[in-house]
Amino acid sequence: MSGWQRLGLLLPPPTGLPWMTGHAFLPTLHRRPEGWRLYFSGRDDAGRSRMGFADLDLEGRPSVRAVGARPLFDLGPVGAFDDHGVSASWITEHEGRLYLYYIGWNLGVTVPFYTAVGLALSDDGGDSWRRFSEGPIIGRDPADPYHVGSVCVLVEDGLWRMWYLSGCGWRMERGRPRHYYNIHYGESADGIAWRRAGRVCIDFRSPGEYAIARPCVVRDGGVYRMWYCYRGEAYRIGYAESPDGLAWQRIDDERGLAASPEGWDSEMAAYPFVFDEGGRRYMAYNGNGYGRTGVGLAVLEEGRRAAG
User: Most buried of 157, 167, 245, 247, CB within 10 angstroms?
Assistant: First the structure.
């Protein structure tokens, strides 16, 4: 029994925005003085993603107060690592500055896509953003030879710690390349230059699994808790614990989340973001179609929260 109580669909894909025609995926939240801001990624008719935001009201029944009309910034120039999409992944606040780690997308030839991790900065609480550089801060290298993707970044005693998606290869299956990726670990002194050595934190546990994505780490005293999504036929949300953030035990049935019997998340549950507010622990996540139906919300039952 997972302990999560579903609260329903929070943000259907917004309509009437010229930069997106569907989806609201990879929910990423940041606490502002006036409340929580939900960053999400939408797709245009060509399948290219850009990032937008919605301001939330979590008092009483959770709801959306307002949706931003413009994307945070546009695609990169032709040939850049993010010329076919920019997708929100994580926001870290440090010494008054916001660090937005985002996924940049390229189309491939021998494989469908390549991804790398870019960085944008904000010095006004998220009202405006600027790219740190035209190139990625994390891309393909000897430690991560295929691609890197969604990240989680925490700062502990001056050490920046990152858990991130790392591609471990492509395999031809039924005449098409299939991506394989799991969760790796890296460290940094400044959140920009990262040391990576190929350390795997969350790995496959059955032959049918091939994708583990979107790590979200919360530290409760001496216990690190990670939520992520994993898939064989369809994504489910898994859960793991660690004493140090390095060695993890997967216990997906303990606090993970499966698909619902019916409705907007009846086919999959994916891309979790877990956060605390008002003494309660929430999870924002996507359902069917990798965000095609929007962003939903769940809350951890009081007994399960207290036991943590």
Answer: 167
